[in-house]
Write a structure and sequence with these properties.
The protein has about 200 residues and is mainly α. The protein is built from ten helices and two strands. Helix 8 crosses helix 9.
């Protein structure tokens, strides 16, 4: 099997071989940025980045300065270089959506679609659980969040909650109903669609 070391040994003019190698392991942002820039035209950029994904190494590899922990999350998964030369997950998943958020970017259409599909799946699972327990006011709002008319059972539970809230002693008319409705909406909105194992890919500092 051809290793990165073998490739580097027979490829002349590599920037990490013709320039001070300490740049690639510097803790100074300016020097690290210079190493990233020098890597952009390197013919071994992709195998170098793959090596860093497969091994827990520090520094700039393949023109990317993400942390070893961030690289490890890409291990065994498809990845890409983005416009800034960083290694990223291929778009179209919840994890890639979270990566966009971590970089303070507007998520792309493919990642947004994957995120929305996960949110809908989780809400439907929650709604199934509410139905299994006889329906609820939270189920009423889950129906609404899913863009559908609430079923008769959840609608009845919601109406019962509003009536009970309105009968609470000492509350002004309408206030109890508003509080009950807000609590049910919060329960329905508790599902953000976040994947518990997803983390952004921060640039190493």
């Amino acid at each position: 099997m051809t290793t990165l070391h073998d490739l580097a040994a027979r490829t002349p003019g590599l920037p990490c071989r013709t320039t001070d190698p300490e740049l690639w392991f510097s803790r100074k942002a300016a020097e690290r940025a210079l190493a990233v820039a020098l890597c952009q035209e390197c013919p071994l950029r992709r195998p170098c980045a793959q090596y860093a994904i497969d091994h827990p190494v520090e520094g700039v590899w393949g023109g990317s300065a993400v942390s070893p922990m961030a690289r490890a999350r890409l291990r065994g998964r498809p990845w890409r270089f983005d416009e800034q030369g960083r290694v990223r997950m291929v778009c179209g998943s919840e994890d890639a959506y979270r990566s966009h958020i971590g970089y303070r970017e507007q998520p792309c259409e493919a990642c947004t679609a994957a995120h929305e599909a996960l949110v809908e799946e989780q809400r439907r699972e929650r709604l199934d659980a509410e139905h299994a327990n006889g329906g609820s006011a939270a189920g009423f709002w889950l129906h609404r969040r899913l863009g559908e008319d609430p079923c008769p059972v959840c609608r009845a539970k919601w109406a019962d909650q509003q009536k009970a809230a309105g009968r609470r002693r000492g509350e002004q008319p309408g206030r109890g109903r508003s509080r009950a409705a807000a609590a049910a909406r919060r329960s329905a909105d508790a599902l953000s669609g976040a994947h518990t194992g997803a983390q952004p890919l921060p640039i190493a500092s």
